[in-house]
Amino acid sequence: MRQPHARFAVIGQPVDHSLSPYIHKHFANQWSVDLDYDRLELSPEALTQGLTRFAAEGGVGANVTLPHKRAVMDLCGELAPRARRAQSVNTLSVIDGVWHGDNTDGVGLVNDLCLRRNIDLRGRRMLLLGAGGAAFGVTPALMDAGIGELVVCNRTPERADDLVDALQEPERAHTRYWQDLPELGHFDLIINATSAGRGTQPLQLPFRLAGTQTVAVDLSYGMAAIDFLAWAKAAGCGEAFDGLGMLVEQAAESFRIWQGVRPDTEAVYAELRRLADGEGAVE
Ligand code: ATR
Does residue 25 have an active-site annotation? Predict the structure, then answer.
C-alpha cells in the first residue's frame, strides 16, 4: 500500500489567499519530495484544538501566520533561540510528539536583501516603522546582519520601547517618537513593518527620510504594499520593493528545517513576481 504523504499546512485566519501551499509544492517538486501542504483556517479560540487535531491526523509541520504567531509559542514544547528572540513562531515541527517552534521571517528578509538584492547591511542606518508582530519577527536577524544603527518609530511609543528593550543593544538600537520623523535625517534602509496598508488609515511619512541611496522595503506584498511603495517612489528612494522575496525566502528556510535540504528560490520568486507585476493576482 502507498504510504500517505507527509502533511503540512499554513495556519492562520484568514489563509484563503496564502501563497505558501504554492511555494512549498514548488520546492517539493524540485527535490522530488511527496507532501501535502494545505491551508488550515483556525480562529484564535480554535488554535489549540485545531493543532492537536492536525497532528493526530498526520500533520508533521506547519507555517503559522496572522494572528497566531505569538499565541502559538505557548503550545510549543521547545523554541529555537531565534523564535524566542523574535517573540513569535512562524514554523512548527512535530518532533517526538512535541511541537518545536522556530522563526524564519528574519532570516527570510535578510536573505532576500543580501542574497537576492546584493545589499550589504553592515554599518547601515536603518529606520523600522512599526513595533508589532512583524517588526519583532525580523529585527533580531537584521541586527545580526550588522546594521549600524536601528531607529524604531511606532505610533504607540511604548511598543517601540518594548521592542528595543528586548533587543538589548543600547549602542545600536533606539526609539524616536513618530512626530519626530521629519527631524531624523536620511536613512540607508527604511522598513515598513506596520499594518497600515491593510487598514484604512494611511501612513503619514515625510519625504525627507529618503535619499537617492535609500532602500525602502515593505514587509507586505500585493495591495497592502501599494501605498508605502508609492511613497518611496515619490520620495526618491533608490530602490523600493515589497515582501514577496521575503515570503519566498522564509518558506525556503522552513522547507530546509523540515526536509534538511535548501530549495532554490529563484524560479518560484520569478513566477510570483511575474503574476504580481503583470496581473496583480498576488494578494
Ligand atoms: P503585525 O503582526 O502585522 O505586525 P500588529 O502586531 O497588530 O500586526 O502591529 C501592527 C503595527 O502597525 C503596529 O506597530 C501599529 O502601530 P500601533 O502599535 O501604534 O498600533 C502599526 N500601524 C497600524 N496602522 C498604522 C497607521 N495607520 N499608522 C502608523 N502605524 C500603524
Answer: no
Which amino acid type is present at position 84? Answer: R
Q: Which residues contact 129 (CB under 8 A, 6 or more apart)?
A: 153, 154, 190, 191, 192, 193, 194, 203, 205
Which candidate in 7, 26, 69, 85 is catalytic? Answer: 69
**All domains in the chain, ordered by first residue:** 6-103+247-279 (3.40.50.10860), 107-242 (3.40.50.720)
SS3 call for 93: strand
d(CA 256, CA 250): 10
Mutate to test the pocket of ligand 1, among 69, 155, 192 (most ligand atoms within 8 A of CB): 155
* pLDDT tens, position by position, 53-66: 999 999 999 999 99
Each residue's pLDDT tens digit, 164-212:
999 999 999 999 999 999 999 999 999 999 999 999 898 999 999 999 9
How many whole angstroms from 196 Cα to the centroid of ligand 1? Answer: 6
Q: Which residues line ligand 1 (CB under 6 A)?
A: 66, 130-134, 154-156, 159, 194-196, 199, 201, 203
What pTM was computed for the model? 0.95
List, in sequence order, the alpha helices (H) in the chain: 20-30, 47-56, 81-86, 105-111, 133-144, 157-167, 226-235, 244-259, 266-274
C-alpha of residue 129 to centroid of ligand 1, in Å:
9
Minimal-distance CA residue to ligand 1 atom 22: 194
